[in-house]
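Shift notes (night). Ran Integrase catalytic domain-containing protein while the centrifuge was going.
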Amino acid sequence: MNFTAPFRIKDTKFEWTRLCEDSFHKIIEQLTNPPLLAYPDFTKPSHLATDASGVGIAGVLFQYDEQNNEKVVAYASRNLKPSERNYPALKLECLAIVWAVEQFRPYLYGRKFRVVSDHNPLAYLDNMKIKSTRIKKWRLMLAEMEVNCVEDDKMNLAKLQREDQDLKKIFHKLGDKSEFGRYFLKGNVLCKKYKKYQDKILVPKKLVESVLSTCHDGLSGGHLEIHVNGFDHVVIFTDYLSKWAEALPTDRINAKTIAKILINLVINRHSARGKLLSDQGRQFLAALVKEICEYMKIKKLSTTPYHAECNGQTERFNKTICQILFTYCNDHLSDWDEFLDIALFAYRVSPHETTLKSPFKLLYGRNPRLPGELSKNVDVQVQNFDRIWKEATKRMKKVNKNRKAKYNAKFPGVKFNVNDKVRFDSRQGLTHKLRNDKWTGPFKVFKVMDNNNLELEIANGKTKIVHVNKIKHAEESRDEVKPKSILKSKN
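Came back to this:
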C-alpha cells in the first residue's frame, strides 16, 4: 500500500483528514520497526536488488550479517518519466540497475558487488547491438564497476518447479520425455493440458502467494485499487426480482461495517427484506449481522463452500459493474470510487437479460427520465405497476426454468442416502493446481438435505455441508486416496 498517497494530491487544497492521520502513523510505524537500516560494513560483500514496473523503478542495497540475515543499508526509488513508460520489460530492468548503481555509487565503486534482478538484463545489454547513445552510456558506466548480475530465485519458475515436492513426482514421471499424459514441458516450464480451458502453468508453492497477488491486482481480478480516500472494497446488495443493486465503497470489511451498510443502504431505503443470502465470509456470519437479521425478521442464508453458483446473480453483477467502471476510470484505476454511482445508474436503467426490463422500471414502475427525454405518461406507467411486476416474475421463472434444465443436463441426477460412502472434490482452495488427487474420502453421508446439499461426517463428530455436484459415490473413483482433513480448507 502507498502510505504517502494522501499527501501527494495535486491541484487540490490540502486538508488533514482521518486518512492522512492514519497514513502518518503507519509511516512512523514502518520507519521505526524492522526492517531498520544498518550501517554498511565495507569488509563484507554488498548486494543490490533492483526491480521495475510500469510506473517506477527501485533498488535496495543490502548485506548479510554473521547469522546470514539480510540487513538493508539503503532504499531508493523514483517514478518513470513519460518517455520511459514505453520501454520494454528488459530495458526497464536495465534502467533500474543503471539508475540504482548510480544512486549507490559511493557504496559500490571500487568493490565487487552482486545485482539481483527478476531477469538477467545485463546479458541482454551485453548481447544487443549498439544502436542508441543511451545504451552506449549504460555500458560505459557499468564497465567501471565490478558487478555480477544474478537472476532472482523467486522469479526462476522452472527452477522452483523442480524444487517443489508436489511437482517432483510429475517430473519423475516425465523423465527424459517432454510430455506425459496431460503434463508437458513448454520452454522448460511444466504445464498441464485442459479440454475446455487454455493450457495452465503449474505454480510451485513458493510462488502461489505472489501469483495470486498479481492475478488479483486491479479491477479485472475482481479487486480494486486503493484510492486516495482509502477505499479498497465495495459492499454490494442485489434484489432477486427487480435486479436492483446497491453498492458502497469502504476501507474496511468487518462485521460492524457490513451491519451499518445493511441498515443504511438496504433497510432504511427499501425496508427489511424477507431473505438475505451471502457467502460464508466471517463478516457476514458474525453475531452482529445475525442479530440484526433476527430483529428485522430477515431469514439469513449462506451459500455452501466453493459453490458460487448459489449466489450467481451477485457474482455476475460484480463482473458487470467492473466492466462499466473500466470505461470511466483513469489508466491506474485509482479513481474508481468517484464513478461508482454513475456506473450503478448505467446498470439500473439498462434492460436486464432475464426480465427484459430495467431494474429502475421494476422498482419505480416507470422508465427513468434521461437527458433529452421527458415522459408525459408517468401516471399511466405507475398504474400498470402490478402488471409490470407480474410480467417480470413470469419472465424470470421461465428463464430460470430453462437455465435449470441446461444446468441439470450437465449434472445428471444421482441419489444419495444416509450412510452412503462418498468422496468430496478436494480441488478447492489456493493450491488446487498442484493437486493430482481430485476426490478425497471416503466420507459417510450424515444427512440428506432438501436443497441439493449433503451433510458429510468428516472426523471426530464434525460435519461439513457440501453441494451434490462436488460429491461422488466412493466406488465411482478409481484412485484410492487417503482421507485428508478438509476442515482447515478455506470456506
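The two ends are 26 Å apart (CA to CA). Residues 216-223, 372-380, 429-436, 477-491 have pLDDT under 50 and may be disordered.
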